[in-house]
Amino acid sequence: MKLIRTCQLHKTLCLVLFIIMKNLIRNPTLQFAQTKNRQGCLLKNMSIMKRQFIQFFSIWVFLLCLGPGIQAQVVFPPDFEQTVRRDYEQLSDPEETFDAYFSYRKTAFIDKYNIEHRLAAAYEPCQGNHTPCGNGDFETGLDSNEWSGAYGVYANYPNALTDGFSPLNLALSNSNARQTLVAVGNDPITGISQVAPGGSTQAIRLGNTAVGRGVELISKRFTVMPGQTIIGFQYAVVLQKPTGHPNGNQPKFFVRVIDCADGSELRDVCNLGNNSNMVIADEDNPFFMSMTYNGNELKYTDWMCAQINLSQHVGKTVTIQFINMDCLQGQHFGYTYLDNVCVTTNCKTGDVRLRGVPACGPGRICVDFNLPEANGITGTAQIDLQIYQDGSLIHTMQSPSFIAGSNYCFYVDPAQIPGMNTNLSGYDFSIVGNFGINGISLAPITIGNPPDGQTTGQNNDVGLSCITQCCPGKNLIKNPGFELGNQSFSSG
């Protein structure tokens, strides 16, 4: 790649020219023949210049020495058009002329150059210091102390995006509306709620209805702590459904988690359904509704629940990214609503809640659950009880698969659990609800933060044995084991 700057003055040469100008001010009659400097800039006969012009020019040279130089001019590689044409011919279903595609690639090339040469702010995923859940509900707006943002085009994803947020109040049709703060109300196209159910008053919309291979995201960087390994969130998508496009070329929403130690992507930490971290318009998923918009098929969902599971990455500093992306072919859009980061409630895709837990010894761990329902179709639920000791998974108990019902209990006898260390004080557990509908697996929901489970710390969710009361038989002392707290006793 050949990149040049027109008449860019090296600082050393700048200083030399400044000294010459200074001498000219002292002796303005000094004669110079017409010559060219090292950058090809013409120096004319100085005897005809006035002292005032020489003074102005010397100041200009001095200021130029302090700055980065004149605006960069990008020169494209000799084979640039040939490369772009080859890429165009490999598109499975091109939706625009080569000239339009070539213009897009030139713009992307210039944007990338400006970012790489610090002429535009570059998005760095692992910069910033945020908390996992701060400003996750967006009720106070979009806090730049808790979120980072970026935007750009598909050709420059993921390494050459522009850092920052777009104005937060732009219309859905505005191509510059990358991250938009929305309030209670309905989506102007589909009519779905712009905020999550359950009392939310604000949310973030990623993307817009403009086409052109746009990419936008918001992200958080934090260190994974033992008691906060599950990061829930709620989202709704509006995606055009182009025919004949491979899945990878469709408009999409996806979640990406980066290990900031080496910049690698952590795999298998977010399941948005079908064991994928990506959502595209799915004809077989009854949670997708359909309509026609501007002559094109549009698929959209109501609010969905999902989680990021970082239980295998405690102690790592990571960045989680919520990313919206238009169609790769260039003529279809997608946008996403995001809300309630760290909260998963009112989940129409299936939900599970803890109902009862023994304090110690053998007992029942009980849950309530909701089956997924969409467009008159009822899905299935299957519940896992995961048991941990010393931070390691030692056993999983599984429920049957349910097509009806709303609750289930696991009977747990620590003495009968394979691998249970009875020399420890207790065990930890988490609940995982696995849901499906119409042959499609949906996002699982976890209760607790494995491996610590329900309470931060290890081996402290359920005690292995209960303390025997000192006085068997009839006991006239109320609440002798303090199960009800410090009742019936007072201190002297």
Individual helix count: 4
- Mind telling me the C-alpha Rg? 31 Å
Q: Percent of residues in beta strands?
A: 25-35%
The secondary-structure class comes to: alpha+beta
What sequence of helices (H) and strands (E) makes up the elements? HEEHHHEEEEEEEEEEEEEEEEEEEEEEEE
**Major sheet, described briefly?**
7 strands, antiparallel
Q: Can you tell me the CATH architecture of the largest domain? A: Sandwich
How many separate domains?
3
* CATH topology label of the largest domain: Jelly Rolls
Give the low-pLDDT segments.
1-16, 28-50, 59-71
Average pLDDT, all residues: 86
Q: Quick one: CATH class of the largest domain?
A: Mainly Beta
Number of strands: 26
Helix content: 10-25%
What global shape is seen?
Answer: globular
> Roughly how many Å apart are the termini?
85 Å
Tell me about this structure.
This protein has 4 helices and 26 strands. It is an alpha+beta fold. The strands form 6 sheets. Strands 5, 6, 8, 11, 12, 13 and 15 form a 7-stranded antiparallel sheet that branches. The chain has helices at 11-26, 51-66, 80-89, 98-116; strands at 35-36, 42-43, 148-153, 162-163, 179-183, 202-207, 214-223, 230-240, 252-259, 278-279, 288-293, 296-301, 304-309, 317-325, 334-339, 351-356, 363-370, 373-374, 377-378, 380-389, 392-402, 407-412, 426-437, 440-441, 445-447, 462-463. It has 3 domains: 11-66; 120-339, Sandwich (Jelly Rolls); 351-463, Immunoglobulin-like. Mean pLDDT is 86; it is low at 1-16, 28-50 and 59-71. It is globular and about 85 Å long. Helix 1 runs antiparallel to helix 2 and helix 3 crosses helix 4.
